[in-house]
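Researcher: Let's do a round of design. I'm pasting the structure tokens now; please hold your answer until I've finished.
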């Protein structure tokens, strides 16, 4: 079996099909790990959801911020589509409910026992172990599925901006969601700045890329992420970053999780459906 991790698709269905063909994917022996943001900004979110859902157990998917946005619009009380969203075909599809229900069941974190790999969409706060990350992701999933409308009424916001074990209720869930689906930069103490979106070298002290925090608790595991197109492909610091900016005209990339860790990704070029610098 080969496990291929694939970066943010964001509705770039044609590129996804081309990449899967290039990987020589076989449903008899392979898995495709998707780092989240299957949908939005690209032109074919509906086709992407149908394709990945049809993969069944061969697809391992974690939720990204755009996937949560789709769920919020579909199931929440007052979330609306934003400028640049391309989600209308999903919301109007005859199989909308089946696709939304399937997406609702996806976790925010996935770990492979025996491999030392943890997959999340964006990041892991410095104080989080792999076990705590999975615990928090599970808490979010339970709350989301129990009452989606109530969940989305309290999900959005940048506060609290750091993790404390004493957090409870909506504050605890919000920090977990922001860390797992939006994080790029934080301080050594784990305070998040969710408005910083540039390349890692653009950060000024006390801010740094979350993975560069000294003595990060999760540093002994390989953490597989997307979300950060200006970071691009990175296989260092204990992370494997795979968002190579397909929707912005970059590439869609995959990496063999069971192969040589020093090899580069397998990529296909992307048409570019949004102007660089848009909201990610």
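Researcher: That's everything. Go ahead.
Model: Designed sequence:
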């Amino acid at each position: 079996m080969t496990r291929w991790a694939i970066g943010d698709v964001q509705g770039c269905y044609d590129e996804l099909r081309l990449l899967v063909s290039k990987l020589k994917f076989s449903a008899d022996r392979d898995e495709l790990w998707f780092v989240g943001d299957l949908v939005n900004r690209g032109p074919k979110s509906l086709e992407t959801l149908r394709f990945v859902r049809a993969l069944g157990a061969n697809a391992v998917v974690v939720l990204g911020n755009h996937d949560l946005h789709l769920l919020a619009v579909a199931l929440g009380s007052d979330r609306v589509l934003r400028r640049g969203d391309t989600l209308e075909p999903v919301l109007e599809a005859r199989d909308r409910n089946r696709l939304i229900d399937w997406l609702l069941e996806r976790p925010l974190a996935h770990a492979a026992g025996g491999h030392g790999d943890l997959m999340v969409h964006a990041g892991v706060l410095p104080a989080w172990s792999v076990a705590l990350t999975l615990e928090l992701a599970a808490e979010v999933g339970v709350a989301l599925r129990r009452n989606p409308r109530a969940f989305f009424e309290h999900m959005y916001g940048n506060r609290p901006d750091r993790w404390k074990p004493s957090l409870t209720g909506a504050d605890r869930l919000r920090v977990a969601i922001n860390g797992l689906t939006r994080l790029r930069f934080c301080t050594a103490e784990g305070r998040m700045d969710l408005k910083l979106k540039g390349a890692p070298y653009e950060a000024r002290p006390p801010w740094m890329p979350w993975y560069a925090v000294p003595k990060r608790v999760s540093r002994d595991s390989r953490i597989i992420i997307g979300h950060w197109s200006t970071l691009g492909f990175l296989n260092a610091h204990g992370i494997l970053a795979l968002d190579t900016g397909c929707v912005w005209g970059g590439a869609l990339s995959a990496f063999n999780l069971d192969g040589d860790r020093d090899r580069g990704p397998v990529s296909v070029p992307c048409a570019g459906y949004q102007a660089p610098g848009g909201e990610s």
